[in-house]
Specification:
Blueprint: E1 4-13, E2 16-22, E3 29-31, E4 34-38, H1 45-52, E5 61-68, E6 77-80, H2 102-111, H3 128-140, E7 146-150, H4 158-175, E8 178-183, E9 195-200, E10 203-209, H5 210-215, H6 220-228
Parallel strand pairs: 4-8, 4-9, 6-7, 7-8
Antiparallel strand pairs: 1-2, 1-3, 1-5, 9-10
Length: 237
């Protein structure tokens, strides 16, 4: 099984601490299956993801010490951004967005429950949920060891969100890659990802098994997240 162990992850800017996921005196974070990073906007979730992606903003001072059972590089990392519309070329048909044989494209589209006729369409002809599934298929075409997802369901309607989450869960179990899933939506991770880290202003409030943390939250901030559930969000079909 693939494994990523984070021994230290600290991000500063002009001596100001932005993220302190793991410091030198704390126990390492071991990711073997799936990890959800949860918190409000500005809590440091995306910066953490960019650090694992090895693409943090150049002006930041980053300390990232890790051990990995595979090379943590672009060949083994799949990345799913929040907005699929910005991930795809608007003037290119879906089939041309992949860099693999047509037979494999068909297999990947079937895995994410996309009609094969859609490969002849342009992105503007598909919904946000359909496009996000295609972006997932493109990421899978590289056979990643780890999949990083930056709030991929935030702007989707409930039906599309649940569909994508189930697809991701099924694919993870089938292909055995690691998932690191960034979200501010407790409902998106409640019954899906095994471990959770709650971030507030770049600091870890709580971490552990997802079911344990969410069923018995110890930190006031975690309790507030669960109670609010961030229902006031913008959706697109």
């Amino acid at each position: 099984m693939s494994q990523l162990i984070i021994n230290q992850l600290s991000i500063t800017y002009n001596n100001k601490q932005l993220v302190n996921l793991v410091s030198t005196h704390e126990s390492s974070i071991i990711i073997e299956d799936s990890l959800a990073l949860v918190g409000q906007s500005g809590s440091g979730k995306s910066l953490t993801l960019k650090t694992i992606l090895q693409m943090p903003p150049k002006e930041l001072n980053v300390l990232f010490d890790y051990e990995c059972s595979f090379d943590l590089d672009s060949k083994n990392i799949g990345f799913i951004p929040q907005n699929p519309f910005t991930s795809l070329s608007p003037m290119t048909k879906i089939s041309k967005q992949f860099f693999c044989p047509m037979e494999k494209i068909d297999q990947l589209l079937q895995l994410v429950n996309i009609d094969l006729t859609f490969k002849h369409k342009f992105p503007s002809e598909l919904s946000g949920g359909q496009l996000q599934r295609i972006v997932i298929a493109i990421a899978l075409s590289r056979n990643p060891k780890i999949l990083l997802l930056d709030e991929p369901t935030t702007a989707l309607d409930s039906k599309s969100k649940n569909s994508i989450l189930q697809i991701l869960k099924d694919l993870k179990e089938q292909f055995k890659f690691i998932i690191v899933f960034v979200s501010h939506d407790i409902e998106s991770i409640k019954n899906i990802w095994k471990k959770i880290i709650i971030l507030k202003d770049g600091i870890v409030c709580e971490k552990g098994n997802t079911k344990d943390v969410l069923s018995n939250p110890q930190h006031k901030y975690t309790q507030e997240l669960i109670q609010s559930n961030f229902k006031n969000r913008e959706f697109r079909v």
